[in-house]
Design goal:
Blueprint (H helix, E strand, L loop, with lengths): L1 E5 L9 E4 L10 E10 L1 H8 L12 E2 L3 E9 L9 E6 L6 E9 L6 H5 L2 H14 L6 E5 L4 H12 L3 E6 L4 H6 L3 E4 L4 H7 L5 E4 L6 H8 L5 E3 L11 E2 L6 H13 L7 E6 L3 H10 L5 E5 L1
Parallel strand pairs: 8-9, 8-11, 9-10, 11-12, 12-13, 14-15
Antiparallel strand pairs: 1-2, 1-4, 3-5, 3-7, 3-15, 5-6, 6-7
Helix pairs in contact: 3-4, 3-8
Length: 295
């Protein structure tokens, strides 16, 4: 089978499309014929060799956590061959991948759309709970237009939380469509946020060096959570990088999608041969929704 792999840490150019042995489903696992794989920031952080204790790897390594496809092999204790599923596993930029957590795809989703949900929704649910924001309060989201931000905004709205979101000028209307009060980042952004009202909690999704300002706006370090700035703990701010229950998050995602409360658009799709370009674009930011690799 074809698979994207890297034999050394480095830039996007270390990614190679190679021939590899097919993986097989162990006990409690499934294997899918991958139709699409989600592109997440963690993919290029791991490729660069950044310190991520939750994702220890050995070289050479495959790439990717999220995928959607058709179950073609099951391990002991599992059924479902032929099911259309989405979920989380390992080495998902490949023609076949093993998943450890999955759910049947909601009606109406394409494989490309479904591949963009698993890690994104788990992260959004986790950090909303970690930051402790409650219905009726106001949450500030820095870097709100990407996959996680898109999920956070919609879930927060469903929970009765007011959201102020920052993004580039081109994504202001997109944030408003998702229910946020939108403003741009850049010079003067702190004062623009102040004019929009008091902030009860804040999330850093972009890692753009604004932790100090988020703490100032939220009022205390414990009211801020980051998923993108490894230096956040220096300010007393929690860096959230370890996933919780992915099966539980997938179940919540299915419910939200079925109720029409969650939709994350696919901004761009890439072929397996374009994995490096997908990483370049992901690292550049300014994403509206999700990027996926199509097999």
């Amino acid at each position: 089978m074809r698979k994207v792999s890297f034999a050394e840490f480095g830039g996007p150019d270390v990614l190679q499309l190679v021939d590899a042995e097919e993986p097989h489903a162990g006990p409690g696992r499934i294997r899918i014929a991958v139709r699409a794989a989600g592109v997440n920031p963690v993919d290029w952080r791991v490729r660069e060799g950044q310190v991520l204790g939750a994702h220890p790897i050995e070289l050479p390594s495959g790439v990717g956590l999220d995928a959607a496809g058709v179950v073609d092999e099951v391990g002991v204790g599992v059924t479902g061959v032929g099911d259309r599923v989405f979920g989380e596993g390992s080495d998902t930029y490949a023609e076949f991948a093993v998943l450890g957590a999955w759910a049947r795809m909601p009606e109406g989703l394409t494989f490309e759309e479904a591949a963009g949900y698993p890690s994104v929704v788990e992260t959004a649910l986790r950090i909303l709970r970690e930051v402790g924001v409650r219905p009726g309060q106001t949450l500030l989201v820095s870097g709100a237009s990407g996959g996680v931000g898109s999920a956070v905004l919609q879930i927060a709205r469903d929970w009765g939380i007011r959201v102020i979101g920052t993004a580039g000028a081109a994504n202001q209307e997109y944030l408003r469509e998702l229910g946020a009060v939108a403003t741009t980042y850049g010079e003067g952004w702190v004062e623009r946020v102040r004019r929009l009202g008091e902030v009860d909690a804040a999330l850093d999704l972009a890692g753009s060096g604004v932790i100090r300002e988020l703490v100032e706006l939220a009022g205390a370090p414990e009211k801020v959570v980051s998923i993108a700035d490894l230096g956040a703990p220096e300010f007393g701010v929690r860096f959230s990088g370890v996933a919780g229950s992915v099966p539980a998050a997938l179940a919540e995602a299915v419910d939200l999608i079925a109720r029409g409360k969650l939709h994350i658009p696919v901004e761009k799709s890439y072929a397996l041969t374009e994995a490096a370009a997908a990483h370049v674009d992901s690292q550049a930011g300014h994403t509206r929704g999700r990027r996926v690799v199509v097999i």
